[in-house]
Each structure stands twice: as C-alpha cells, then as structure tokens.
Amino acid sequence: MSKPPIRVGFIGLNPNNKWAATAHIPALRSLEEDFEIIGVANRTLESAQRTAQELNLKSAFASPAELIASPDVDLVVVTVKVPHHFELVSAALKAGKHVYCEWPLGNGLDEARELAAMARETKSVAVIGTQGQTAAGVEELKALIADGYVGQVLSTSIIASGGNWAGQTTADSYYLSDGANGASMQSIALGHTLVAIQHALGNFDAVDATFVRNFDTVEISDTAEVLPKDVPDQVMVQGRLANSAAISIHFRGGVSRGTNFLWEINGTEGDIQVTGDMGYPQIVKLSITGARLDDRVLAPLECKRNRSPAENLSPAADAVAEIYKRAAADIRNGTRTAPTFDNGVALHELINHIEVSAAAKQKGVVLSFD
Fold first, then answer.
1. Is pLDDT of 366 > 50?
2. Of all residues in the chain, what percent carry a pLDDT higher than 90?
C-alpha cells in the first residue's frame, strides 16, 4: 500500500526564473509519489496568489505564519534571502514541521548553531540545501577517485567565477554586496564548492585564506545607482586535506572571458580535469576528462554512477531532487540520509575559519620587498 505524499509549503517562491521555481518545483514534480506541493507564502498575499496561479498550486497563504500553522503542510521549504532564514526556520521547527532550508542555513555561524540545536530537540527532519554532495557530476568524480583513477591524491586546484560580487549587479541582487546579509561569495559560491570538494576528496585538515576587494562600490544596472559594497570580490583559499593533499582555490567575482570553472586533481597515477560554465558545481553540467599512467592527452572519462541523472531535469533540479528523495526516506523511516542542519553547521564553521584567516591578514604586517 502506497503511503500518502508529503505535503509541501514554500516560503519564498517566485515563478519569474528564480531558484525555487527552476530547481525545486521541477524536482518535486518529478517525485509525485512522494510529494505534493500544497501552496506558497510570499511577502504579500497578492504575490502568493500570483505565484499559485502561475505554477498551478492549490493554496496561496496570507503570510508565512499562516502557512506554517496549516495542518495541510508537513514540510516547510524556506527559499527566501538569508537574513530571514532564522525567523522562518525556527518558527517552522517550533510548530513541529519538517524543514528544508536553502544554504546558507543562518546569517552566520551563531544563527546556524542555534537552528541546529533547535532541530536536534525536535522529531522534525531538518534538511539543508547543500546540493554539492548530490550533484551527478560530483558523484561521478567521487567514484573515480574512490576507484583509484589518480592513485594517491597529491593536490587539487580550483579556479572559478562567482557570477556576482564584482562591480555591477541588479537591484534584486544588491543584497549580496552587503556583508551584513550573510550572502557573500565565500558563503554562497565558495560554500557550495567546499561541499563538493569534501564529498569527492575528504575533509580539510588545515586552511589559510586571503580576501581582496577591488570594488568598494557597485553599480546597479537597472537603476544606474552606485551603492557601497563591503564584501570581497577575490577569495583565495589554500591548505591541506585530511589525506595530506595540497589544495588551492581562487574564486573571482563576476564572469571571466576565459575559464569560469576549472578543477584539477593530480595524483600518483593520473590526473583529472573538471570544467563547467560557472563556479557552481552543484548546478552546472560538469565535463570530466582525465589521463593516467602512459596517457599523454586528457580524454573524456566514462564514469561509474551510483544513480542516473533524470533526463527531464536540469543538473540543478536533479541535484535538488536527490536531496528530496533522501528527505522523503528520512521523514518516513526516521533516518538521516539527507544533509542535516548539523552538516550545515560544519560548513559554516569551515567558512568561519576561512574568514578569520583572511581577517587576520587584513590586520597583519604588510611585507615590503623594497
């Protein structure tokens, strides 16, 4: 006998090509035996009604509080901007709902720790949207490493573009330029990539970082305003993984005319190169090439897969769907296979170490080579 679907309510859902509409909605609709999308709450009832009509949802709630209190909602999905995560997620947990919160979990480490502690005190399944560990390309890479394609991993290097955080943005995305909002390049673009790195290669053992801010202001393209910016547009991280491999990462704000995502893994027996259109391995299609032993030229690799990506979903929606599959199993079986709030806290802690390292350099001694 089939179990009734898990009823989902969204807080923060816009049909105009936003993340929740282009990734979460297709993902859930591909899992109709497990989930039913009940409705949405946005900043206004009118906005929720427009979204419900355009996406053919049953209900438009007058407020997030009304959605959270509804007996027709089992799982609350929070896809709003980071500064609102704490209030909404904590309200949902207190109401006994299961929660899927997009990354970052909180606006900084303290909020994340408090939300994780709150989740542990409940019977709710609390999921964090770190799709880097469920993206098909990252899973393929992990399998290649585990099968010994490169032998012992000696080093790994990434150069990537964040898309935002340079000298120009839109009014809707300007909040990314204000560090108080917890949505910096190191939090979002680097954060998701750190998940992919650790999933494929293991955890960090030591880390050191340098941040550079070339732009103190940002031009708002749709209004021609020039507004202040206090987050870095160059994020450089280096260190050592637990397997003793050296690691270096350079994230650049904006978009490059050259390489926007290049990840190399070098080992005792072979080398792997991973490329993509942008510095988000959890949402873009990844191309994986390699060479080993007597090979002299990189060639596309036939990758072993634990699962086949859904043909009708984008790479982003496929990665999100895999998290939802695990969340459904967790809700029904009492397991914890989807990424948890505690996993989110661990990622916040790593990013905090990176930020502390970079801040120390800002205050440190400037070396002169004159």
1. no
2. 92
**CA separation for the pair 150, 271 (Å, rounded):** 6
Residues facing residue 240 across a β-bridge? 206, 246
Spatial distance between the Cα atoms of 161 and 174, rounded to a whole number of angstroms: 18
Alpha-carbon distance values, 202 to 29, 142, 198 (Å): 33, 10, 4
Please tell me the CATH code under which domain 145-300 is placed: 3.30.360.10
Q: Give the residue carrying structure tokens 């573009």.
A: 161
Kindly provide the residue ranges of all beta strands, DSSP E only, lying in the chain, ordered along the sequence: 6-11, 35-41, 59-60, 75-78, 98-102, 126-129, 153-161, 168-169, 204-212, 217-220, 226-228, 234-241, 246-252, 261-267, 270-275, 287-292, 299-300
Q: What is the pTM of this model?
A: 0.95
Average pLDDT (195-204) is 98
Please list, in sequence order, all residues whose beta carbon lies within 8 angstroms of the beta carbon of residue 208, skipping any fewer than 6 positions away: 237, 238, 239, 357
First-to-last CA distance in the chain? 78
Intervals of CATH 3.30.360.10 along the chain: 145-300
Report d(CA 113, CA 119) in Å as an integer: 10
- All CATH 3.40.50.720 domain ranges in the chain, comma separated: 6-130+313-352
Q: Are the C-beta atoms of residues 149 and 130 closer than 8 Å to each other?
A: no
3-state SS class at 56: coil
Distance CA(330)–CA(319), nearest Å, equals: 17
Fold adopted by 6-130+313-352: Rossmann fold (3.40.50)
CA–CA separation, 235 and 254 (whole Å): 12
pLDDT digits (tens, 9 = 90+) for 11-55: 999 998 689 999 999 999 999 999 999 999 999 999 999 999 999
